[in-house]
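User: Sequence recovery, please. Input:
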């Protein structure tokens, strides 16, 4: 419908909206291919809530892309999947910096994007477990995905929920038992006792993202 020059401007506007949303939530634009974009959440910078960040960015992209002021109204589809990958620079890439992720996770995300209807975000079961009650989800059941051995349970993201804290959003179902931390618990309880007696205390709890500090 558009001349090449107008199409180029439209794609550039689309990519700006995607990049802005992805970077706002701590993601990394890995590469663009045609009218698609791959983004990483958890590399090179890791956060404890990478999955929710990815979904927030996805919802923002859907909202922003449809509002781009151009002769043609754009629509988009997003797939999000969480899991282990190997990240590396694409070989023989001379035009621009670009990265790729090897593993089943990006393959599933790509299949979800293809399966999604216009202006929707689909996530897999592994992502659902990480985001828990932070979003309203619609269970779409088990789906056969090309190139994936076992059927994958898929969810459509309807909207973000308002939670009192990130901890509550991630642990709405149940808390796992605390194991092997008796000395640490004794220390905390001892300091809490001193606080109640009017003696101020400070405790620093440190660790790499995802180790279970919450």
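Assistant: Recovered sequence (214 residues):
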């Amino acid at each position: 419908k558009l001349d090449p020059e107008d199409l180029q401007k439209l794609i550039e506007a689309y990519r700006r909206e995607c990049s802005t949303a992805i970077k706002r939530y701590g993601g990394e634009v890995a590469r663009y291919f045609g009218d698609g974009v791959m983004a990483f959440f958890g590399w090179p910078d890791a956060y404890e809530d990478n999955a929710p960040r990815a979904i927030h960015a996805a919802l923002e992209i859907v909202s922003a892309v449809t509002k781009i002021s151009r002769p043609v109204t754009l629509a988009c589809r997003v797939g999000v999947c969480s899991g282990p990958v190997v990240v590396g620079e694409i070989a023989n890439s001379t035009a621009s910096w670009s990265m790729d992720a090897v593993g089943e996770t990006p393959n599933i995300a790509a299949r979800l994007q293809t399966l999604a209807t216009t202006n929707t975000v689909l996530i897999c079961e592994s992502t659902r477990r990480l985001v828990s009650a932070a979003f309203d989800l619609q269970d779409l059941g088990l789906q056969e995905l090309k190139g994936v051995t076992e059927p994958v349970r898929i969810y459509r993201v309807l909207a973000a929920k308002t939670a009192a804290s990130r901890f509550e959003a991630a642990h709405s179902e149940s808390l796992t038992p605390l194991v092997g931390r008796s000395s640490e618990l004794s220390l905390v309880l001892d300091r809490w006792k001193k606080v109640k007696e009017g003696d101020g205390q400070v405790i620093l709890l440190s660790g790499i993202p995802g180790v279970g500090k919450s």
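The two ends are 52 Å apart (CA to CA).
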